[in-house]
Design a protein that fits this description.
The chain is α/β, with parallel strands linked by helices and about 290 residues long. Helices cover about 40% and strands about 20% of the residues. It has a single domain, classed as Rossmann fold. It is built from eleven helices and ten strands.
Length: about 290
């Protein structure tokens, strides 16, 4: 199936009324949005809201239960294995905490997709790897192992690997998790800079409000299987939706409750409500007298 877009608003990825569930647990419920070319789109929301699932649906790891998910106008679910693998070669992925191969050097980690998926000569691979490492500021660390570099540096090496094949789309799954302020700021700046310099399209899953709002062009907040808010960072920040307001202000209670649904507290302890109330009343005088 092919979807036609206006040339001025062509989307690299589009979801139309997409639903998806793990067994009986509905994750996405008729969700619609598009990922515009050349922009940074952030997927945000509470844990378990379906953000990483969206990345897996884009990559074709999962197939939608209903609705339409497209990549460059083609229905992802309908792609043959050959076409899907070709599409994935145009996608880069930065996993949470980097996911580097621990037995390979920094250089060999970045060279891995080039050696596996291309017929380039080793001299050409060497030049490309050094260019990618230079872009993330780590050309001088090429001979180190992952155990010899910091967490922030590991994330940057993973970013160099993600862009090794010059993809059209780069997806980031929690790229800021566990980073110190300097490393976080560096990672955020790199994501924005590489997106603009290389003409990429970026999808960013993150819980870091400040860093994400600073670099995103579009923010999509997922909650309860649906889109709670969608727009520019400024529009989302000023949303009057209670759930979005709770998320942006980091309030502990609101539509997303602090307490997971549970039986009545007194009954869970083995007391009836009436007995519990009476017990509290009996204890009150003794407590008052002891003050």
């Amino acid at each position: 199936m092919t979807v036609t877009f206006d040339s001025n608003t062509a989307a690299l990825v589009e979801f139309k009324d997409v639903s998806f569930a793990y067994a009986d647990r509905r994750i996405l419920d008729e969700v619609s949005f598009h990922i515009p070319r050349g922009k940074v789109t952030a997927l945000m929301g509470a844990s378990g809201g379906g953000k990483t699932t969206v990345l897996r649906l884009i990559a074709g790891q999962y197939k939608v239960d209903s609705g339409l998910a497209t990549w460059k106008g083609q229905e992802i679910k309908a792609l043959s294995d050959k076409a899907l693998y070709a599409a994935r070669r145009q996608m880069g992925m930065l996993y949470q905490f980097g996911a580097l191969f621990t037995d390979l050097s920094v250089f060999d980690n970045v060279a891995f997709p080039l050696r596996e998926l291309t017929d380039l000569s080793e001299p050409m691979i060497r030049d490309i790897v050094l260019m990618k490492l230079q872009a993330v500021g780590l050309r001088g660390a090429r001979d180190l192992s992952p155990s010899e570099i910091s967490g922030g540096m590991s994330r940057r090496v993973a970013l160099a690997r993600a862009i090794a094949l010059d993809p059209e789309l780069v997806m980031y799954d929690e790229p800021f998790a566990g980073l110190d302020p300097i490393s976080l700021g560096t990672a955020a700046r790199l994501i924005r800079q590489l997106n603009d310099t290389l003409g990429l399209t970026t999808v960013l899953v993150s819980h870091d409000l400040e860093a994400t709002f600073a670099i995103a062009d579009q923010v999509i907040v997922l909650a309860n299987g649906r889109i709670a808010a969608q727009g520019s960072p400024q529009e989302v920040q000023h949303s009057v939706d209670p759930l979005v307001s709770q998320f942006v202000s980091a309030s502990p209670d609101g539509p997303v409750r602090f307490h997971y649904p549970a039986p009545d507290w007194a009954e869970d302890l083995g007391f009836g409500a009436a007995h519990h109330t009476a017990s509290l009343a009996e204890q009150a005088p003794s407590r008052t007298g002891s003050v």
